[in-house]
# Entry
Amino acid sequence: MELNSDVPLDPPRDAATVVMLRDGAQGLEVFLVKRHGLSDVLGGAYVFPGGKLDAADLLLGAHIDQSAADMHSALGEPDTPPATALGLYVAALREAFEESGILFASDALAAQAALRQDSQQPFNAWVAERALTLQTRHLLPWTRWITPRMPSVSSKRFDTRFFVAEVPANQVARHDDFETTASAWLQPKLALEQYWDRQIELAPPQIMSLAHLSRHTSVPSVLQEARKRPPPVIFPESYDEAGERLICYPGDPRHSSAARAMPGPTRVYFRNRRFEPAEGFEALFV
# Structure
């Protein structure tokens, strides 16, 4: 993974990500997709399905299972307009569908069957034509990640809302072979072990999110936590010191916010061409 040192002038773009979950034979599993190597955002890295908010995501109010006010309240962002909150939920569902084939909607199986026959139609028009109702209640806000002012793995900045959701039992997640070239269901700790063994690449938000999820043993446990608290805002602060990139998280002595936002280490360093805690791998789980 290449380190970025550019400081973009544009404000962060709104984006949404879905951390898709299931209970496997050995416990909680998370679905990860590998970004195409030529992608200008995290090319070659394993990520949760997601992407930026599109204007068309704001146009599906009549095809959603709850009101914009309810979604706005659940998101816990008083300064975000309700229409944008609605759009973020739709963006999350759209990206999950486009990148993994999972459709959180009424009559999802029939709609899935038609996907490959009409892949060029915009998602909002595709949903409206089939009179589907998007099931946004399946998504629970989990965290909000805002790219540091000096990004480390991309020259772009995003304000990304991470949602958690259990994948419907009758649907099969798979990568799209276009934006994503591989995929896997992995236990959070196993994904981190594969990262540590250099089998896969992960960016800091995925590393820290997997470390957070590794503290849970089942889907209900994750969803219960999501329902009990508002999604924390994670605004990393990055520094270059002694020839190394340092990323600090809320609660770190060097971060401007003294209150912790998530479990795990409060800082990681870019060493050996990857991000790692100063105390080593096991520090992710302390």
The chain has a mean pLDDT of 91.
